[in-house]
Write a structure and sequence with these properties.
580 residues, seven-stranded mixed β-sheet, 41% helix, globular, binds zinc ion
């Protein structure tokens, strides 16, 4: 069991004896009354300390975490998770909640009703949950705090978007294209919920609302591509943006500088975290809302779409106890998803995994996830993580020499390090590390594998049809596939005789787009002595790296994409859109 949170011990000294106490009162019998009062005050303190000591001992004996809540600042957000009546009835209070973890303290954590309550909360908030043993004194302290949460708390938080409201609107949408018609008829007060309902229903990852000269444009990003959804009258803008600011918890009266806010929507089946960013532009403020859905728990390693030899080689590399696995690609190319699929495969009881990320995109039970901040950078975080004796470390991104050096050091000293690097492809990784100032003789032995990747949209199964390819494009395809390693060529030999490709026509199921969902296309560079030798030479170009990797049998992203197009998973257009 991991004890992640402990209130400071109020006193490390031994409990004072009555004799000590009396002598500390001065032993002067002349002022009996005040001595008596001081005595009973002190006695009360001693009882409390003794109570905490016993509670702590009891918790240790049962293997349950313990916390002393007296003097602990419990946020209204946390406290209000369990309502007052239930807290009194079950002697249980929620004393910590950060959107990812819920911690409940109870004087009787083994009570099945308390356990049921925690299970319910875990499900409702899509959080990890921990039960703590607390003393009677802690409980009373926390129960008193309920007085401070005014009944108005919910209202103070401003606009709320509820499941009922979203349900009401989402029934009216079959696609984001229906938003225009609906929103024209809507009251201003309904608009925010309606936009969110349409976005959730159409599986959008981002909502863009931009002021233009005469109107306001609403666009949704679906599977990585922005689609126009609706145009609004400019008159509505001021009020609409005020409501969105209230929802996101930012200052309504500020419109001349950028602001960031966030809010979570709790649905029965999932939690949706919304990060809203407000930016002043020449036509008024623009808003971008990113929807992070807790139900998007990610893929299994086997389902990422990594094929053939690459899959076998990469699987071998991630099962090694040390070294670095790096994923590369631009923002939004699915790097984190890949690393989490790897983590999912490696996440076992006997393995300690710690992450440092910005932001935390997926929740994973059994993994210690931490978030960077101004005072907790990737480098600082990584330094303290290494001291926590982990087996596997995930660093969200390596973008400076300090982080790179600690990561390499960790990889060389018995840790498996997973991270991402912002380069175009696998071949660019080593030159990028070296340009940061990394030492070649440390980098070469620390790398296990480099994954270059992009996401392509998958053709909608419901409206897939064969498509004619122009002769020029067909030549490009043949040239690319012709350079495949022998083994890969053999695997698709029958398809090569009659090259067929597909696209989606557009139907109800795919909102008329022709695509639904995305899959990765990959190139995987596995380290070997030849590549190491090149790194050790110290001056390495992307060109050299690519040449040696291909010579060693690397299938490029474009080739992997074209094979997926041949298999009817994606289209040739998609492959050439993302990989040249
Ligand atoms: Zn379709």
């Amino acid at each position: 069991m991991r004890y992640e949170l402990c209130a400071p011990m109020s006193d490390n000294k031994k409990v004072q004896s009555i004799e000590d106490l009396i002598s500390s009162l001065g032993g002067n019998a002349g002022d009996d009354e005040s001595a008596q009062q001081k005595f009973s005050e002190k006695q009360g303190e001693i009882n409390k300390k003794e109570m905490e000591r016993l509670t702590r001992q009891k918790a240790a004996g049962k293997g349950i975490p313990y916390v002393d809540l007296a003097g602990f600042a419990v946020s209204p957000d946390a406290l209000s998770i369990i309502d007052e009546q239930e807290a009194i009835k079950l002697s249980a209070v929620c004393f910590y909640y950060d959107g990812q973890k819920i911690r409940v303290g109870s004087t009787d954590p083994e009570n099945s009703e308390v356990k049921d309550l925690l299970d319910k909360l875990k499900e409702k908030y899509h959080c990890q949950g921990t039960l703590y043993l607390i003393s009677e004194n802690s409980l009373n302290f926390a129960l008193k705090l309920y007085k401070n949460i005014s009944k108005k708390y919910e209202e103070v938080k401003g606009v709320k978007v509820t499941e009922e409201e979203l349900d009401k609107y989402s029934g009216r949408f079959s696609s984001f294209k229906d938003l225009q018609e609906q929103i024209n008829k809507a009251e201003l007060t309904e608009m925010v919920s309606m936009i969110l309902a349409a976005a959730i229903k159409s599986n959008a990852s981002d909502i863009h609302i931009e002021g233009e000269e005469k109107s306001i444009k609403i666009r949704f990003r679906v599977d990585g591509i922005l689609h126009d959804s609706a145009v609004l009258d400019k008159e509505a803008w001021k009020k609409l943006i005020s409501r969105m600011k209230m929802l996101a918890g930012v200052k309504i009266n500020i419109s001349d500088r950028p602001q960031d806010g966030r809010v979570s929507i709790y649905l029965k089946s999932e939690r949706i975290d919304i990060r809203a960013s407000f930016l002043p532009t020449s036509y008024g403020e623009s808003v971008v809302m990113r929807l992070l859905r807790s139900s998007a728990v990610g893929f299994a390693f086997e389902e990422l779409g990594i094929r053939g030899q690459s899959f076998k080689q990469l699987e071998r590399e991630i099962l090694r106890p040390n070294g670095m696995i790096i994923t590369t690609g631009p923002t939004g190319s699915g790097k984190t998803t890949t690393l989490y699929a790897v983590l999912k495969k490696l996440n076992k009881h006997e393995t300690k995994i710690i992450t440092i990320e910005d932001p935390i995109e997926y929740q994973m039970e059994g993994v210690n996830q931490s978030q960077t901040s101004d005072k907790y950078t990737f480098a600082q975080g990584l330094r303290s993580i290494v001291r926590q004796d982990p087996d596997i470390i995930l660093v969200g991104e390596i973008r400076d020499l300090e982080t790179a050096e600690i990561a390499i050091q960790a990889a060389l000293t018995g840790h498996l390090v997973l991270s991402t690097l912002h380069t175009n492809d696998a071949a660019g990784t080593v030159p990028r590390f070296l340009s940061m100032g990394t030492k070649p003789f440390l980098l070469a032995p620390s790398l296990n594998a480099i994954i270059g990747q992009r996401l392509v949209r998958k053709i909608c199964d419901n409206c897939k049809q064969e498509v004619k390819i122009s002769p020029e494009i067909m030549d490009r395809i043949k040239e690319s596939l012709g350079k495949l390693p022998l083994e890969e060529k053999k695997a698709i030999a029958d398809k090569m005789l009659d090259l067929k490709f597909y696209q989606g026509k557009g139907c109800q199921k795919c909102q008329g787009i022709g695509y639904r969902g995305r899959i990765g296309i990959y190139e995987i560079m596995i380290m070997n002595s030849e590549i190491e030798k090149i790194i050790l030479s110290g001056s390495v170009s992307e060109y050299d790296m690519r040449a040696v990797a291909v010579k060693n049998g690397m299938v490029t992203m474009a080739q992997d994409g074209l094979i997926k197009a041949l298999e009817g998973i994606t289209s040739v257009d998609e492959v050439f859109r993302v990989a040249k």
